[in-house]
Amino acid sequence: MTPVPMTLVTIIAEHVLREPLTADLRRLGARGYSIGEVEGEGTRGLHTQDWQGKNLRIETVVPADVAAAILAHLAARYFDDYAMIAYTSTVAVLRSGKFA
Fold first, then answer.
1. Can you tell me the distance from the alpha carbon of 40 to that of 51, in angstroms, rounded to the nearest whole number?
2. Fewest C-beta atoms under 10 Å: which of 11, 12, 45, 64?
3. Strands 34-38, 4-13: pairing kind
């Protein structure tokens, strides 16, 4: 089985965005995703998780064109109003049919 290049999209976002983001990912072409709670510190200091909940890390493996659509949507819809970062990485996957 030969690995196939795909794009990993990673989103770190506020807990309240879980449902809208997962719906967006599906609508934009992601066939699945993984979610985990994360904590950390950024340019604005520590996240106040006691009342806001922990941040989420949402990851999805998609073709490059779907990754570009996801990033464009996040920038247009969320970046101005929510604490969020998003980035991509090129990954090599087996069973690529599960992702595209």
1. 15
2. 45
3. unpaired
